[in-house]
Amino acid sequence: MRVFVTVGSTRFDRLVQWIVWDKVLDVLRDNGYTDVVIQCGSMGFQRLPGNGATSFESRGCNIQVYRFKPSLEQDYDAADLVISHAGSGTILDVLRKPKPLIAIVNDSLLDNHQKELADALSALGHIKTLRDAIHDIGQDTLIPFPPLDGSRFRMILDREMGYDV
Amino acid sequence: MISSTAGLLSAVLCIAIWRSLVAFRPLGPRTRKSTETCSIAVFLGSGGHTSEMLTMVSTLDFSRYADRTYILSEGDLLSAEKAKSLERTKAHNSKKSPQPCTILRIPRARRVKQSILTTPFTAAVSLLRCVHLLTIAPLFGGPPVPDVLLLNGPGTCVVLCLAVLFNRLLGLPSPRMIYVESFARVKSLSQSGKLLQYIVDSFVVQWPQALAGIRKGVFHGWLV
Predict the structure, then answer these.
(1) How do beta strands B218-219 and B67-73 pair?
(2) How many whole angstroms separate alpha carbon A49 and alpha carbon B145?
(3) Is some CB atom of chain A closer than 8 A to the CB atom of B94?
(4) What confidence tens digit (pLDDT) does each residue in B56-86 have?
(5) Which of B176, B204, B224 sits opposite A92 (nearest CB)?
(6) pLDDT for A67-92, tens place per residue?
(7) Is 90 exceeded by the pLDDT of residue A139?
(8) DSSP H/E element including B150
(9) Do B30 and A120 count as a contact with CB atoms less than 8 A apart?
(10) Does residue A96 sit within a domain?
(11) Which residue of A has its CA nearest to B33?
(12) Which of left, alpha, beta for A111 (phi over 0: left; psi -120 to 50: alpha)?
């Protein structure tokens, strides 16, 4: 199985380093996740176990790393599990697939707002905090994320621009 | 001599105050026939800003918002790719050949993690480019000012708004400015949202909690 790790459009070195840590790779491998694809942002490849290589093997996992891609769509589709920063774009894309997602708040950003969104979505039951996930283990209690309602923004703009709606 | 200078100065001051008041007043509504088209400029702020904005733009009727310009920060290659990809998808879905759209680049007002001390300099360069785009070029036969400007942060879009205000100060045509706060902003506004709520013509938030304590704003559910 494949796990896809994404840090969004800036960087989240701590998440990437945690993923390639031996003990985490062991857990992934033991659970059948032997393919690990990492979108690492502007982090240097030298800081990874592959010593600058974009494709390497570590602890029985095949790891591929890249910095950015125009679209992560194919990587989401090919993944069995997504581990990401808690950015709104990533959360929306992955929950609408829908694919299982573990999102980690990146608290190194200026004026951090990832925690606020994660808290609000978990209050609505669309995602779970780690504490609740452990508490509810074995029960599927998440509320599916609603699809995009395209009529809303269309109506707002049409009204703003003076069209009859 | 002194009295005429004083008279002239006070006249200039009065005009300046009057124009400033006009510039900060939101544009009034204007009705359009359903067949009329609109030109639209969309600021793409990279990362989550771009993906939220393009999701919203994807819901629009492209035959109505026919003349589209995407404004993005210099060096933001991903947003340009994503905008082109949206244009292709929309053309494909409506079984038309892709319509021309314009992609413009402006220098970033502030980079992620850039120091507060150097920000005024990069912001000034960015502002000059925006004034050129929205004020000077349209006066000298360049592309006309769009009917509407959609914004959702980050910092560089504040600079675009300042250029629009400049047009209003001078009494030149200006686009209607619509700011949509990010889906990620639940209880508090972003820095650009905090500033722009006083300037834009329409301010939209995506969580009801975000309306608390702000000067003006509307909530119509999640837009992304």
Answers:
(1) unpaired
(2) 52
(3) no
(4) 999 999 999 999 999 999 989 889 999 999 9
(5) B224
(6) 999 889 999 999 999 999 998 889 99
(7) no
(8) strand B148-151
(9) no
(10) yes
(11) A163
(12) left
**A residues 96-115 lying closer than 8 A (beta carbon) to B:** 109-111, 113-114
ipTM computed for the complex: 0.86
In a domain, A144, yes or no: yes
Q: Phi and psi (nearest 5°) for A106?
A: -90, 100
Flag whether A165 is in a domain.
Answer: no
Which tokens hold the place of A113?
Answer: 């707002």
Distance (Å, whole) CA B69 – CA A24:
45
Distance from CA of B121 to the nearest CA of A (A): 20
Distance from CA of A134 to the nearest CA of B (A): 25
The answer to whether residue A151 neighbours chain B at the CB level (below 8 Å) is yes
CATH of the domain at A116: 3.40.50.2000
CA terminus-to-terminus distance, chain B: 63
Cα separation, A81 vs A33, in Å, equals: 9
Return the CATH number of B36-219, one of 2.40.30.10, 3.10.129.10, 1.10.580.10, 3.40.50.2000.
3.40.50.2000
Residue of chain B whose Cα is closest to the Cα of A108: B113
Per residue in B81-109, pLDDT tens?
Answer: 999 999 999 999 988 877 789 999 999 98
- Helix segments in chain B, DSSP class H: 2-23, 47-58, 77-93, 119-131, 137-139, 156-170, 191-196
SS3 B179: strand
Which band of pLDDT confidence, cut at 50, 70 and 90, is reported for residue A110? low
Whether B221 sits inside 8 A of A152 (CB atoms) is yes
Picking from B33, B50, B56 by the largest number of A CB atoms within 10 A of its own CB, the best residue to mutate is B56
